[in-house]
Structures are given as structure tokens and as C-alpha cells.
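hey so i finally got around to running the thing on that chain from the lab meeting. sorry it took forever, my laptop kept dying and i had to restart like 3 times. anyway pasting the input first so we r on the same page abt which one it is
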Amino acid sequence: DDDNSDDMEISKVKDPRTVDVYPLKNLFLIWMALFHRNLIQIRSDDDGNSTMDALVAFTRVGLDPHLYSAKDCANTCGEPLHAMIQKSTLALVRSATSQMNKQFGGSHVEQWLKQAANRVVDACSDLGAGDEDAADSDDADGHLPLAMTVKRMCSCELNNGFSLEIALMKLNFATQALQKCLGEISDWEGNVRERTNFLCKDWDKDNANGNPAKQALQNAMHALVTAEVGFLWIDEESESFVGNHPHFLAAVSIAGECALVGACIYWCTQSCNETEEPIYTTEEKDAVHECMSNIEDLCDGIKKECRAVIAYPHLRRTKEYLTRLSKSLGGTKGKSSLDKRQKRREQGSLDSYFRPSMSDPFTETQDS
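ok and heres what got predicted. didnt touch it at all, straight out
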């Protein structure tokens, strides 16, 4: 009897429905209030290390499946528990970057964002497969938790408002996570740099220094080119990727998040422009358009490798994600001025317009 009672106690603890979300929600509400008011101060001798530990803790908590299946998680008043965890993470990043910018300057903030992203990537990598009956039970290398973290990181802020610091947090995290997920590309940074230099060869570099809009554009291009290089590698090595369905889904998802955060930075920076002067030149718009178009084409090519999607759920999810990503980029990339200039050149003058109709109808052709 004593043994049976012990088994019942263990099963009761492991049952996710026993998680009480009310105190957890109150706890995260307190955290958010403290972060919003910068009441949790960063010590000058700490250099942001304790904040990184807190960021890793919030991120790892957000991966716990018990919080999503807990009783009354979504039925209680207010937002679901996982949404509150995401907003607490946002408040933490915003508070940390604001305080460090005042204490140490903007360069220290950029360095902290890169280091924090690296810490989170390490903490969310190689977590292993899920439970036996879970959707990620076949993810032996633990790629899907990393992809899930990238998708959820700072997604609330990018969808419902824009903050450059939050966007840079997601940018650094997504690019480092993609490099970690692919892992086999030699000279990754060299490939990204070479492709960026090719796309941006016509840019005016003299006006980029000290211009926040131009710096944001460079960040957007870095994210888009990183996604393009990642998708190109997935397309070239599609045979090996398709053989590992969880890895395939994770790599596509992370590369897609890189593209989406780049598109978000590009368009939100343009929308925040309060002057009548355009902030992007024709050459800059053409480069962004070309990069997004290349990503669209790569998505279409990779999607053709997703066969037998009914029998393999991960392949179905991958194909659906690629379809949504292509539509999203197609609707936001705008039109290239190269197309407009080509149309103007083809229109020509009235003489060129009437000339075809006045040509000799009896001129010999190849068919005759």
C-alpha cells in the first residue's frame, strides 16, 4: 500500500493539469511591472551578466510543455501564461538595454545583445527529444526546441509595435541559432559578407555613417542575406535534410524567422520616417527586393522536396511554413525600381510605338 501511494504521489506531481497558473501569472505580472519601471537595477560592476542569466531562465521556462497544457492556462482572465512569459522577456530586454545605454553607451548594448543571444542559443540547444507521445519524440538532436525559441523570442513586440533594440535581440538570436542549426557551412560569415557586398555594391556608403535609418537598413540586409544563405544551403543539401525531418523543419523555420525580422526592420524603419524625404534610395530598394525574391524562389524549390506530407507531419509543417513565408515576403517586398525603369525604356517614343504596325507584312521570316 505504501508503494502504491508513492506512485500516486509521483504521477500527481507529473500531471501537467495540476500546475496552478494563478500564482504564476501574478508572479510574471510583478516581474513585468518591475522591469517596466526599471526598478531592478543593473550594477555597474555586473556588466549585464545577471541579466543574461535571467533572460536564459525566462527562455527556458517558456519551453516547458507543462505550462501550455496546465489547467486553466487559457481560460483564466487575462492572457495565456505563455504570452505573459514572452512579454516578461520583452520587458527584461527593454529594461536591460535602456539601463546599459545610459550607463555604458550604445556600443555596449550591441555587445550585450550578441552575448545574450549566444547564451540563449547554448541554453536551448541539444535538449534532446520530447516525450514518447509528443510531436518532437523523434527529434533526437534537439533542433526543434531551438527553432521554437527563435519563433517565440520577441514575437509579441514585432507584431504589435516596433523597437529597434528588441528587433536586434531577435536578429542576433535568429542568425546565431541558424548558424548553430546548420552547423556545417564553412566560412559562414565570409559567405554572408560576400553576398551582402554583391547586393549592396551600388549603395552610397558615405551617407551610412551616423544615420540611424541606414544602420537599420544594414541590419535588415544582414538578416535577409543570412536567411538567403541558409535557404541556399538547405536547398543544395536537401537530400540530407529531408532524411532528418525534425532538423529540416527546424532549419527552415529559423531561416524563415531571419527573413521575417529583416523584413520587419526594413518596413518599420520606413514607416517610422516622419519626414517627407524618402529614407531609402533606389539602389537600396532594389537590393532588398532582389534578396527577398531570391528567398521566395528558394522557398518554392525547397517546398517541392516535401513529398508524402500526409504520412510525415514534420514535412507537412515545413511545407505549410514555406507557403506562409513566401506569401508574407511577396506581400511586403514591394516593387523593384528595376522593373519600372525597364518598362519606361520599353515604352519609348510615339515613333517606336507605331513602327511595328507600319512594318512590311511581307518581310521574310524564319518560318517562310
